[in-house]
Amino acid sequence: MSNTRYKIEEADGGFVLIEERTGPFPTEIRVPYSIAQEAESGTDAASRNGDVLRDQRKVEALKLARYAASFFIEKDPDAQRLLDIREYVEKLVTASIAELRKNAAVPSQQTE
Predict the structure, then answer these.
(1) For the segment 27-74, what is each residue's pLDDT rounded down to a tens digit?
(2) Distance, CA of 46 to CA of 87 (rounded, Å)
(3) Which of 1, 34, 81, 109 would give a disulfide with 77, using CB separation of 3.0 to 4.6 Å?
(4) The pTM is what?
(5) What does DSSP assign to residue 72?
(6) 3-class DSSP state for residue 14?
(7) Using the 8-state DSSP alphabet, how is residue 11 labeled?
(8) DSSP string computed for 21-63
(9) Listed residue (46, 44, 47) closest to 96, CA to CA
(10) pLDDT digits (tens, 9 = 90+) for 71-107
(11) Cα angle 16-88-109, degrees, rounded to a multiple of 5
């Protein structure tokens, strides 16, 4: 049995993915994200299988790595590049949340 549990809650006008780990060193990690990301990740988790979601996450990670190498290692960034890389990161976060939801059978939203 896994010692990791995921849940989603509303927080500060958006949402937060909460990872709870039990065991000798219990931890809670909170990942805030937007309403748009909640809608997209929920739809993706409900409509796609785990393999497709895993591949989607890997593609988004590869795009982020290529972009970072092009504009943050090979060249000097500017303000537009900062905005652009934030978008790549948000896409990777959204794809990862969808995959976690599918694998852990996390419902769309839990409120307490």
Answers:
(1) 999 999 999 999 999 999 999 999 999 999 999 999 999 999 999 998
(2) 23
(3) 81
(4) 0.86
(5) I
(6) strand
(7) E
(8) E-SSS-EEEEEEE-HHHHHHHHHHHHHS-HHHHHHHHHHHHHH
(9) 44
(10) 999 888 899 999 999 999 999 999 999 999 998 887 6
(11) 20
